[in-house]
Amino acid sequence: MTISVLVVCLGNICRSPMGEAVLRNEALKRGITNIHVDSAGTAAAHIGEDPDERSTIVIVQKSVPISHSARQVRASDFTSFDYILAADGSNLRALERHVGRREGSKAVVRLWGSYLPDNKPIQDPYYGGLDGFTEVYEQCVKLSNAFLDEVVGKKS
């Protein structure tokens, strides 16, 4: 059975495409191939755009493949994904209010940070420098492993 995961932030150009790439990469490093990972934004401002250049720089430096075109969360995402992981509380609230959530949603919708004891949101690095994107990458690695530990099982 394939596990399907949607990582969500505001514009789908910084945190969520990085989270998508990192989660897919961490799963592959564990030999998990039955996982489908995508990302989306709660806002429509960047539909069709590539990830922010700073996200791409950090990901490429870490040798993690990334290929994504920004999109907005759709009602069908709530029935086609098993897990929808929000980057922060604002996006979690937007997901909880989304019309798709009320139409027979099968998805578990959670703050991604809730898979770690500190329950920390992923801060938006958009208005900062490259260091903020590096911090997001490091947090995504930890969150990816915590998520996989809980959903698939601890890595051996």
Keywords:
5 helices; 4 strands; globular; four-stranded parallel β-sheet; alpha/beta; 156 residues
Describe this structure in words.
The chain is α/β, with parallel strands linked by helices. Helices cover 38% and strands 14% of the residues. It is built from 5 helices and 4 strands, in the order E-H-E-H-H-E-H-E-H. The protein has helices spanning 15-29, 53-61, 77-80, 89-97, 130-151, and strands spanning 3-9, 35-41, 83-86, 108-111. Strands 2-1-3-4 form a 4-stranded parallel β-sheet. Helix 1 (15-29) crosses helix 5 and helix 2 packs across helix 5 (130-151). The radius of gyration is 14 Å and the shape is globular. The model has no long low-confidence stretch (mean pLDDT 96).
Shape: globular
Derived structural class? alpha/beta
Per DSSP E runs of 2 or more residues, the count of β-strands stands at 4
pLDDT averaged residue by residue: 96
Major beta-sheet overview: 4 strands, parallel
Sheet-strand content, in percent, reads: 5-15%
**Proportion in helices:** 25-40%
The H-and-E topology, N to C, reads as EHEHHEHEH
Spans of at least 5 consecutive residues whose pLDDT stays below 50 are none
Radius of gyration: 14 Å
Report, as a whole number of angstroms, the end-to-end distance: 20 Å
